Structure formats: structure tokens, C-alpha cells
Inverse folding.
């Protein structure tokens, strides 16, 4: 053993571990920067929830148009259909507002909601019984589609969608003639 001190066997400069740690930090920063939204991109693309709300509002508007067509063709059904039609109007308002209106503050609207120019105007069957059956079928189909959409919906929108789907199922039940089950 030598009587003098030997120099440690280390190379001058950074160690391999510190280089790897630094490279990982730089890579992480680059990934995070690439994934973050810029101020302009948030305004340009609607979020998934906004797209779901817009689609749900469109579906409710189309259903509202069907109610209006049946009421225009068969005024004798007004007493039976008007409360359900007004509820569908409130669904449209709930999907198009930032927050769903509470039942106490939601005023029923009796004015028709304009259809989009590309959508054909809904028509009603000449027979009032068949027109109501068509409405029940439309309510049931829409309630089923909304129930399926719950799987992908964010929490707040999911609660609204579930509530409206349940209301649609109830509307379908109320519109169904007991004789149809036989």
C-alpha cells in the first residue's frame, strides 16, 4: 500500500446520472409544453362537453319541432301535449344555457323554436292516434340515445342528460296508449 494518497478514479465533469436526470427533465418539459393549450386554441375548438350539449340541444329542438307539427295538425291534442311540449322546450333551454334552470325559475315557453335551415320541417301523421304514437316513438328513441351517451358524458352534463333522458322516457310512457301494449 503506498504511503501517499492516490487520487480518486473519477473523471472531471458531470456524472452520467446527472446527465440522464437533466435529459429526462428537458424531455418532460418539452412534452408538457407540447400538450398544453395555447390561449387561442381553447376558443377555437369546442370541448367534448360543449359538443355533447350542442348535440343534445339539437335533438331536443328537433323533438320540439315534432311536437309543434303535431299540435299544428291536430289542435284537439293541445291539452294533452302542451305540458310535454313545454317540458321539451325547457330541455332545449337547459342544454343551451351555462347552467340548467331550476324548475321554480323555468318559465314555460309557448313559442316555436326555429329549425335549422338544413333540417326538413317535421310533419305529423294525418291520424291523431298515429301522430301521438310517432311522438312516443321519437321520445323513446331519444331517451335511449341519451342513456347511451351517459357513458361518455362528463359528470355535470351526465346528470343533466340522465334527468332529461328520464323525462323523455316518462313522456314516452305518457304518450303510449294502453291499447298499444295488447
Amino acid at each position: 500500500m503506498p504511503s501517499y494518497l492516490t487520487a480518486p478514479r473519477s473523471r472531471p465533469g458531470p456524472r452520467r446520472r446527472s446527465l440522464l436526470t437533466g435529459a429526462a427533465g428537458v424531455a418532460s418539459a418539452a412534452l408538457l409544453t407540447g400538450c398544453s393549450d395555447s390561449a387561442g386554441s381553447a376558443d377555437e375548438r369546442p370541448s367534448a362537453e360543449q359538443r355533447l350539449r350542442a348535440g343534445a340541444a339539437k335533438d331536443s329542438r328537433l323533438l320540439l319541432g315534432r311536437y309543434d307539427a303535431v299540435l299544428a295538425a291536430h289542435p284537439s291534442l293541445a291539452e294533452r301535449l302542451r305540458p310535454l311540449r313545454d317540458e321539451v322546450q325547457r330541455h332545449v333551454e337547459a342544454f343551451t344555457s351555462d347552467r340548467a334552470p331550476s324548475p321554480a325559475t323555468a318559465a314555460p315557453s309557448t313559442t316555436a323554436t326555429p329549425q335549422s335551415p338544413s333540417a326538413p320541417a317535421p310533419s305529423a301523421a294525418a291520424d291523431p292516434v298515429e301522430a301521438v304514437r310517432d311522438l312516443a316513438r321519437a321520445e323513446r328513441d331519444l331517451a335511449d340515445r341519451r342513456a347511451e351517451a351517459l357513458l361518455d358524458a362528463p359528470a355535470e352534463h351526465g346528470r343533466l342528460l340522465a334527468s332529461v333522458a328520464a323525462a323523455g322516457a316518462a313522456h314516452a310512457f305518457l304518450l303510449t296508449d294502453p291499447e298499444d301494449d295488447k
